[in-house]
Amino acid sequence: MSLPDAVGRARHIGAGLAWTLVFAYLLAELVTATAWKTPYSFRHDTISDLGVTTCTPNACSPLHLVMNATFVALGLLTVVGAIGLLDYIPHGPRKWSIVVLAVVIGASTAATGVFPSDDGIVVHVLAVMPAFVSRHIVLILLTIWLWKNWRMAAIWSGLCATAGLTGTVLLMIGLQVGVTERLVFYPLPAWMAVTGTAIVVTTVRTAMPWRRIVRWIGCPRYVIIGEGR
Question: Please, what is the angle between helix 121-145 and helix 93-114, to 10°?
């Protein structure tokens, strides 16, 4: 394996792992919601309610720091993963479009944790909106651009885009805000986590020299790696 190949694979694995860590977001939500002083409703309460820093009769989130830190981490992981996996996007305007959208989504997601809703709803909404819009755009573009060379990834992108757009329509209609907001928000993190895991597994499999590993049965202290003969 040449050095450039090794560096490229290491970058892909690192970026894929960054996106795989997005699975932890769901755990952060669950832990923060469980710690609420009043019962938290995943049907009727918003995601932003988990990050409120002050207590009211209807909302009190003792672990708001966990939720807000998770928003910041999610934003950073979004950007890191996107930049590390740009090799999968054709050169030219497409590549830079993905970079710009990833930075917008990442910065907006991080800002959601920096400016909780109870610190000023206007500022919070301004922090949330760029990611709210850009997440649909990036999934639609990925569906189109990946269709020719990465058909399964394109289908997965399309399903996530459809789910997010459906959630947006339902949210605007005014259906249960906790459910519909998550239908808008979850598809992109889910896309990142599943795609990142798939890239890590695929890259590791292609990099492992399975045919060159010879194990001396009966001599566990020796593992010889060389050409299989």
Answer: 150
DSSP reduced 3-state for 120: coil
Other beta carbons less than 10 A from residue 112's beta carbon: 27
Q: How far, in Å, CA of 157 to CA of 170, rounded?
A: 20
DSSP state of 147: T
Residue percentage of the chain with pLDDT more than 70: 88
Is the model's pTM score more than 0.85? no
- Write down the H helix ranges in 85-150: 93-114, 121-145
Q: 170, 171, 107, 163: which is closest to 136 by C-alpha?
A: 163
d(CA 227, CA 77): 38
pLDDT per residue over 76-133, tens digit each? 999 999 888 887 777 778 888 888 999 999 999 999 999 999 888 999 999 999 999 9
What pLDDT is stored for residue 217 in this prediction? 39
